[in-house]
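Board notes (copied after class):
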Amino acid sequence: MRFAALGLLLSLTACEKVIDLDLKTTTSQLVIEGNLADDSCPCQVTLNRSANYKDTNNFRAVSGAILTLTDNAGGRETLRESATAPGQYAGATLLGVPGRTYTLRVETGGPAYVATSTLPAPVVPFDRLSTQLSTVGNRIQAVVEFNDPAGQPNSYLYRQYRNGRLNNAIFVQNDQFNDGKHVTQVLRSAGGPSNDPNDLNKLASGDSLRVEMQNIDANVYEYFRTLNLILTTNPATATTPANPKSNFSGGVLGYFSAHSRRVRTIKVP
């Protein structure tokens, strides 16, 4: 009873990003994927209807919705739907500012769905990107390094790209055990014939490796943490359908994330 909902396709230069959801559900539901980063790009939101797990996994874009973005500094704007990409909405004036709290309101003809997200401050610098060989299997792994600010909770989401292609594995952590410390985080993802049968994510010498480090708030961390638990649970042993903990009201699927975004790129040695 799993399905995959294709989200926003975002590139570094076009203020775009890919999020793939693989969720369990039994009925069609609204899926909201919203992102606002501190990269001088406006808010981007995708609205879809999830497919019933008995269906063919074709997801219907939701057009004609009313989306309103506000912040705690008095800013307000209505996001506009793309003329060429149904179900994709973008802002124009409100940008991501560290320390500011944003509220996204989505209306599709029924009750409103509302989510709030705070862009963490101060922004945590992404100090270094390197690689190492895994202890088992000799697979090349990305390694990120940064200094976690002391005395405040921080959560992080990493997106890894091989030659421009996103690795859909979820790399997420918080600083529960490394508050104020220098962090060296290895991005480990399951490889092999069952998880990556065509070795599309397998890093090799000469590859372009790009990693995006997002400093996310606690509710967004919880969403991706629980999503990762669902994706890594053996469906044969799962007893009931479950969905990740959304920060939206109203029982919809998805999330709204205001986050910092820092990127490093290297050539794999």
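Comment from the instructor: Residues 110 and 116 are 20 Å apart (CA to CA). The chain has a mean pLDDT of 86.
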